[in-house]
Amino acid sequence: MKYFGTDGIRRIANTELTPSLVYKVAKAGAYVLAKHSNHTPTILIGRDTRISGTLIESAMTAGFLSYGANVKLIGVIPTPGVAYLTKKLKADASVVISASHNSYDFNGIKYFSNKGMKIPDNLEEEIEEILESGKINELNAEKNKIGVSEVREDLLDEYLYFFRKNFEDEFENLDKDNFVVALDTANGATSVIADKVYTALGIKHYIINNTPNGININDNCGSTHLDMLKKFVVANRCNLGIAYDGDGDRCLAIDENGNEIDGDIIMAIISNELKKEGKLANDTLVATVMSNLGMKKYCNENKINFEETKVGDRYVLENMLQNGYNLGGEQSGHIIMLDYNPTGDGILTSLMLLKSALKNKKTISELSKIINIYPQVLINAKVSNDKKYDFNKNTEIQERINEIEKEFSGNGRVLIRASGTEPLVRVMIEGENQEYISQKAKELADFIEKTLK
Fold first, then answer.
1. Distance (Å, whole) CA 172 – CA 186
2. Side-chain half-sphere of 366: how many Cα atoms within 13 Å?
3. Do residues 312 and 6 touch, judged by C-beta distance below 8 A?
């Protein structure tokens, strides 16, 4: 696709993602997403804290109104908040304006359907077809059919109510007097709502990086830069640290000793808790091929089925919906709990982790012992762009991979995949010995470079 990538459209704001492009994307999107409805469509727009957010919101709004759709502007709100409100308000579609964990100069557009889910590839392709055709110029509302927009930043409180409804009673009955959480909101979309949620649930917390100025989103903070939070947790003797990303659809955690707790560990803790409660659908956890080998071993030992998908949260969700599973996610901390919301939700994930610690009266480091994470090494092999997908067909490369995997005897693995955007083949090796896997990964990457140059 020309415009849409794996997570919507993402480009440098105002130079590549121009207001005129955004305007057209809005018109085409409104047409594709609302053409089967016989009423005036209503579309929600939420955004993160980037300086370009209101610029893109304005162009997007103009495109929707010009097509004849009505718009509700929700303001700064996490991506999952928009997904939740789309379903709750029975809107026809919604848009999140965010570039997630990218630096402030990027921005992006993500469409959600009336079910609160990211739209599938075929609808994105249809939007692109309309964009590229002359049809875009015909999509004009006239006279009294022109849409109207309204500012509805008060809807953030509906998202707060979602957490109160699901967690208030439970947290009221848990002993949380001596438990303190540090929240890093990455100067992003969770800057206001995370504080409101933790306050409403009576959880003692500190909050850092919650003063967005349009250009400090993800700047040495949040889930992509954990050092500040690690130091803060240890210095202030917190029991748990939580780092959200720019648009709030994922989180990573820090235990009381300052150690990182990634998405695999968080999924293990949550799946274990849900299984004990009889709430893990079909006793199954869905994750991608990038999940640590320790995740498979944890599932085997705890009689949990492990379903593996391609990299990308949309493939995790697809598998969950097709097979009736309710928990899945990625190592990055993007975790989907379908009983609550059809997209990853960082605040929801953090509350589930916190609930597990309080219910079991255990520290986060004790809870983490349920899974043994294997050391992992990732090395990029620079190859010719037209040959980067040939590693699967090359018998010499496949023989090398098989030799390494034999040596592991089930306690390690090799994963090779081509980069979607660069002339690179990514070589990932997991095993028990860091030094050994580093050496093997370098040898294999060198061999792939020579073979596919």
1. 28
2. 9
3. yes
The answer to whether the CB of 185 falls within 8 A of the CB of 207 is yes
Domain ranges in the chain are 9-151, 158-368, 376-451
Cβ atoms of 60 and 52 within 8 Å: the answer is no
- Which CATH number is associated with domain 9-151? 3.40.120.10
**Tokens at 123, concatenated:** 């609808």
The CATH number of the domain covering residues in 158-368: 3.40.120.10
Q: Is the pLDDT of residue 314 over 90?
A: no
Single-letter code of the amino acid located at 35: K
Give the active site residue among 52, 94, 98, 100: 100
Domains 9-151 and 376-451 in one fold: no
Distances (CA, A) of 380 to 3, 20, 21, 314, 426: 26, 37, 34, 25, 5
100 is catalytic: yes
- Position 241 scores a pLDDT of 98
Q: Is 426 helix (H, G, I), strand (E, B) or coil?
A: strand
Q: What residues contact residue 400 under an 8 Å CB cut-off, 6+ apart?
A: 444, 447
Task: Name residue, tokens 């990964």.
Answer: 441
Task: Give the list of residues 6+ apart from residue 258 with CB closer than 8 angstroms, or none.
Answer: 230, 231, 233, 234
**What was the pLDDT predicted at 38?**
80
Helices (H), 13-99: 19-34, 53-67, 79-88
The CATH topology of domain 376-451 is TATA-Binding Protein (3.30.310)
At 168-197, the pLDDT tens digits run 999 999 999 999 999 999 999 999 999 999
pLDDT for 37 beyond 90: no
Question: Alpha-carbon distance 35 to 24, whole Å?
Answer: 16
